[in-house]
Amino acid sequence: MNTKVQLTKLLSAVVLSVAACFFVVSYTRFSHFRFQFEHPGAQLMIGCVFIVHYSAFAYALPVTALLSGIVALRAKSGVTFIFEVILEVTWVLSLGWVGFCLLLWQSQNLPMLTHMEFHF
């Protein structure tokens, strides 16, 4: 396969990963602010606390994907399989991170899971 095509695939995966991380960080900040406004003194679920404190560390995924993808592209032996694995893992982890964030923050609003009252 052409190196330009592989580089384009790598850059698109990295851009998607950065966008996913940006979405999770901004969604977490806005959701946390809204939660504190609507439920003063209430406790977040453990998963939401984890996302609030550690969501910015997910930016390590695009950096790692870019560096390992470039190393795989520069290697002369047949590492096309490894390069494709790097791309697919980046895509899956990026989309999974967004889904995990949305699932946790929406489950935070369910009264049966958090013992809170409906606020609508």
Description:
- This protein has 120 residues and is mainly alpha-helical.
- The protein has one domain (3-114).
- It is built from five helices and no strands.
- Helix 1 (3-38) runs antiparallel to helix 3 (60-74).
- The mean pLDDT is 86.
In short:
With 120 residues, the chain is mainly α. The chain has helices at residues 3-38, 46-54, 60-74, 80-107, 111-114.
Compute the separation of the termini in Å: 55 Å
Q: How many individual domains?
A: 1
Order of helices and strands: HHHHH
Poorly predicted parts: none
Keywords:
single chain, 120 residues, mainly alpha, 0% strand
Summarize the topology.
Layout: H1 3-38, H2 46-54, H3 60-74, H4 80-107, H5 111-114
